[in-house]
Amino acid sequence: MENVVELKNVTKKFKDFSVKPIDLQVKQGFITGFIGENGAGKSTTIKMMMNLLRPDAGEIKVFGLDYRTHEKAIKQRIGFVYDGNVFFEGLNLKDIKRIVAPAYQRWDDALFYQYVEKFQLPLNKAMKTFSKGMQMKASLAVALSHHAELIIMDEPTAGLDPIFRRELLGLLQELMIDGDRTIFFSTHITTDLDRIADYIAFMQGGNLVFNQSVHDVAENYALVKGGLDLLDRDTEQAFVHVQRASTGFEALTDNIQAVKDIFGDTVLMERASLEDIMYYSKGGVSHV
Hints:
Layout: E1 3-13, E2 18-27, E3 31-35, H1 42-49, E4 57-62, H2 67-76, E5 78-82, H3 93-100, H4 109-118, H5 132-144, E6 150-154, H6 162-175, E7 182-187, H7 191-194, E8 199-204, E9 207-213, H8 214-220, E10 222-226, E11 241-245, E12 248-253, H9 256-263, E13 268-271, H10 274-281
Parallel strand pairs: 3-7, 3-8, 5-6, 6-7
Antiparallel strand pairs: 1-2, 1-4, 8-9, 10-12, 10-13, 11-12
Protein name: ABC transporter, ATP-binding protein
Keywords: ATP-binding, Nucleotide-binding, Transport
Domain ABC transporter: 5-230
């Protein structure tokens, strides 16, 4: 099975926002970073992946199965880590284990206690006493203790201090060593993905702009700088968006070869970061 998750022509319409028809594949055994500014449609897409929202149209398959006939089997194999505490605040970790464990056929008590020790989590303190980082670790410990094959993380690093964010990212890299897990990591903090992601899916205004390997993103996207005299209606077709200043222009391209063909060595090209791509894409639509 190459794709753990497949969305085909999926749409969802709300009163003031809609997710346009999207085709998204999440490849097995890799970390896919799901980027986009707040309100881009990331959480809506994740909720549809988890069958917490029903799409208006299109087809969703997880592990090759559809929710209509295999919801319980699918959810046995998914672990979800959310931005914030998803457990009742008065419960401690022992209470949570007692409630959650019977719901999963593959729950592993020994593994749960192993992660509790690894993450240095208190078993008998109420969740409301946990810091945000500890709440994140608790959610991850529960997700991993039933041998989840797909870990879905919705803005897991939002509000965390830089030291803990780095610790969490290192932990996710460790989890991927055996090649059995797939992680789908939604964030608007793109620097988190520079170290760990294999694929990047980019949402903007309800559209899926691209879903590419990090290698392909680096090969296709670049920042281009040059003099204003180089710009006209034809040459600007090589760019996703152009920003002008008195000293010249800076632009994002998704077609490096076209820029080379048009401008030769009269412009300067630099690697575009994910943050650059998000920022400049707000001003235009990708030609891909």
